[in-house]
Design a protein that fits this description.
Layout lengths: L12 E4 L9 H16 L3 E4 L13 H12 L22 H13 L3 E3 L4 H13 L23 E3 L7 E4 L3 E4 L9 E3 L7 H11 L4 E5 L6 H10 L6 E5 L2 E2 L16 H6 L4 H9 L14 H7 L10 E2 L2 H14 L2 H8 L21 H11 L24 H4 L9 H16 L6 H15 L3 H13 L7 H8 L1 H10 L2
Parallel strand pairs: 1-2, 8-9, 10-11
Antiparallel strand pairs: 3-4, 4-7, 5-6
The protein binds glutamic acid.
């Protein structure tokens, strides 16, 4: 067997090869991420390629959407449809000449032939096999005297069933059955190649060293290996990713399981670095107990061998938790930039409550410093409007509160009055003096913090949660605090 393109000992080149048929979900982005990490770790290249040979399934705008999604998460590629590169074009529909040339090689070797049947006839063969409870194999119907291929019939591979043993970087050593090898279509009657054929040509011509893709392609590996052999090509390294499962772990993650378009996560206030860490740790860890990873750490520590073979569970609560961790880690100025976008594109959202529109930057930063610990998503900042405007009353905060609903209106009025008087008497308004006053109030009224502090917080903010009460009141200011407490009396 002649080796045309030896791929080892060359710089690592990986690719992400989506079909522009929809949005980018977490499974797709995980494949892209792993390919990206491997390339970056080895100072290789990461390539984006669009596989758009199934024209019926193509969705307008999907290509742009995929590019925007990769950018938004921070997965940058070195070559691709929009930036070009040494092996351009990176769009399959623009590479038809290549596929024809390679197909011609197979025809010349007697390893490809025109399929003379109509789709209806092939369907009949399929039904016959079904009725006989046998697997449908086209090669059982291979025509004895196929017509010359004129480009209007499907071009099929003339296969020789045999078994292969190969090493998958994730799945381990695998031996394939010869039974499943068939005369697969290389070029369809519409002139476009099939994925099965095109990806092998592209990966070869683009000098891809590692194919990282979903495990749904595992069952086709026998046919791919047969094609590599027929084309006299050395296959690259394969790494098939286990499925991502729903939260219960009992079936493949579907749209209904809450996995959104990654751009929607960004719009909803998830940080790219949190999404990256979350996605990378779905089914991978570095063998330590570390739970979150920066991009630099991922590039350093990632390895295909540590990807677990069983399906990874998609746990959105974990993502939310992780997002909060990353938000807490951001320097205040950086966080301020992230929440203060112009709102004109994804990744530049403005997460401030409307009431903050006219507020000055220094004050907003103080609010943000208080809010930072409480934000699980950047969008949670929307709940801090009470720092900028007098909130509207929501009495359900009292009537639905287990402890507060037991108080009589007169008792509430007394407690608020006492608080008002105490806070009004303060000559210095700092978190410390306020805390001291609050502690004295507890003693004076004989109430539990769960009652007294909740009440003050509710009258000052009308929000179900707030940062620590003394800090909240300190930032609101004495005048504003008293005005709000006073309004209820
Ligand atoms: N176009 C294929 C898909 O969308 C890519 C598979 C591969 O990475 O080879 O699933």
């Amino acid at each position: 067997m002649t080796v045309i393109l030896p791929v080892m000992n060359t710089p690592i080149r990986t690719r992400f090869a989506p079909s522009p048929t929809g949005y980018l979900h977490v499974g797709g982005i995980r494949t892209a991420l792993f390919a990206y990490l491997l390339a970056r770790q080895n100072k290789g290249q990461f390539v984006l390629r669009f596989e758009d040979t199934d024209k019926k399934r193509e969705v307008v705008g999907s290509a742009e959407h995929l590019i925007a999604s990769l950018r938004a998460i921070g997965i940058d590629y070195d070559e691709g449809p929009d930036i070009g590169g040494p092996y351009a074009p990176y769009i399959q529909s623009q590479r038809l000449d290549s596929y024809r040339q390679w197909a011609q090689k197979l025809i010349d070797k007697g390893l490809a032939y025109a399929d003379p049947y109509t789709p209806e006839q092939v369907q009949q063969f399929r039904e016959q096999a079904q009725a006989a409870k046998k697997a449908f194999l086209y090669r059982n119907h291979r025509p004895k005297q196929p017509p010359a291929w004129d480009g209007t019939q499907p071009l099929r591979f003339k296969s020789t069933p045999q078994s292969y043993t190969y090493h998958d970087a994730v799945m381990g050593e695998t031996t394939t059955s010869s039974e499943v090898i068939d005369d697969i279509i290389l070029i369809k009657s519409d002139g476009y190649p099939t994925y099965n054929f095109a990806h092998i040509i592209d990966d070869t011509e683009m000098h891809i060293t590692h194919i990282i893709r979903g495990q749904e392609f595992l069952s086709s590996m026998p046919n791919y290996l047969a094609l590599y052999e027929a084309l006299e090509l050395t296959p690259p390294v394969f790494a098939h990713m286990p499925h991502i499962m729903n939260e219960q772990g009992n079936k493949k993650l579907g749209k209904r399981d809450g996995a959104k378009d990654v751009l929607d996560y960004i719009r909803d206030g998830y940080l790219p670095e949190a999404l990256m860490s979350f996605i990378a740790t779905m089914g991978w860890n570095d063998g330590t107990t570390q739970e979150t990873y920066t991009k630099a750490e991922l590039i350093k520590r990632f390895s295909l061998e540590k990807i677990q073979r069983s399906g990874a569970r998609f746990d959105e609560k974990r993502l939310l938790w992780m997002n909060g961790q990353f938000i807490r880690e951001l320097p205040l100025d950086e966080l301020y930039t992230r929440v203060s976008g112009n709102g004109q594109s994804v990744g530049h959202e403005n997460f401030w409550p409307e009431a903050a529109a006219g507020a000055d930057e220094a004050y907003k930063k103080q609010v943000l410093a208080l809010a930072q610990d409480r934000l699980k998503t950047l969008a949670d900042l929307g709940g801090f409007g009470y720092f900028f405007t007098i909130p509207s009353k929501d009495l359900s905060l009292i009537t639905d509160n287990k402890q507060l609903k037991k108080l009589k209106p007169s008792e509430i009025a007394q407690l608020v009055q006492a608080s008002y008087d105490k806070l009004a008497a303060l000559t210095e308004w700092t978190p410390e003096t306020i805390q001291a006053a609050l502690n004295e109030l507890l003693e004076q009224t004989g109430q539990k913090p769960g009652i007294l502090f909740s009440l003050i917080r509710i009258y000052a903010t009308w929000a179900p949660f707030s940062p620590q009460l003394n800090n909240t009141l300190a930032l609101l200011g004495q005048t504003q605090t008293l005005e709000r407490l006073g309004a209820s009396l």
